[in-house]
Amino acid sequence: MPAEQLTSTSGVPTSAALARRALGLVVLLAVLALVVSVMPGLDDVRARFSRADPIWITVTFACALGSTLSYVAALRGTLSRQIPWRASWNLGMAEQGSNVLLPTGGVGGPALGAIVLQRAGVPMGIAGPRSAALFLLTSATSFTVIAIAGTAVGLGLLPGDASWVGTLLPAGLAVALMSAVAALGQLPVSERAEGGRAARLRRQVAALLRDGVQKSRALLREHDPLLIGGCVGYLAFSIAAVAAAFQAFGGGGPPIGLFLLAYTLGQVGSLIPTPGGVGGTEGGLIGMLVVYGAPAAQAAAAVLLYRVFQLGLPTVFGLLAFRQIRRRLADDEQTAAVAARFDTPPS
Fold it and tell me: N or C: which end of the chain has fewer CB within 10 A?
């Protein structure tokens, strides 16, 4: 995260930096809306918005809200419920807001979470691996859906007109990737201090991934319904939001198996380091939905409606959460209380 975005003491983005980012996002979305409203060839998309069903728009909003709330639940589960709900809300919304406002390709939220937890009194040896575990577990949920949906459609267990390249191949790649990441938990990481800055950074990232994988396994063995339900809900509500957005414009999405594949594979576009993944996410989702059988205009309208809520909710709640977090980090007594809960002095 660039230094100008952070306070000198807490590592939390300043109000001014966040305001600039939010303004930049608004401008970016306004440009996108302008393009949709005037660009030739998008008459069908504009016509669908004029006929959108307000009830299904409300359902889309509710599902998007359910996804953001599920992330908060997953976060609290990752921390073994050792922080209260209010703190979990603020941290979870700040992480999601960070992913929207800062061009980090989706990894800024967990990184910010680790920093905030450490500043709040949680030892870095706990904050880092658990933040990494949250990122890995939510990602693993998506890859699991790719593996199951791709296999089910490819073997004819779910309806869908797609070749093995679009079903069994992504399913196999998802399994291979999850297996490779799981293997990282067994790899030794060099503790040598020599080498340049890049070498030290690689060792730190490798160690964090290893610890994150190990912590993910330990957390899953606890079978905490808050963690598992939060991870599943974070993805499931997002998928339901896109499905509801399709219904707002009269339906027309692909069958369920292909719909799951289109959504999860299309999210790869969010890795492009733009604020909120704007541009990449829309392109990825619309492209994959069309590939798997959705009409182009219907897919474009549904994705744009979904993205209004997916970006808007974390932005609004995240800005409010950042304000609370900065106040919280300024309270030395609360920091000491958190540190005592983990039986360690504050860092």
Answer: C
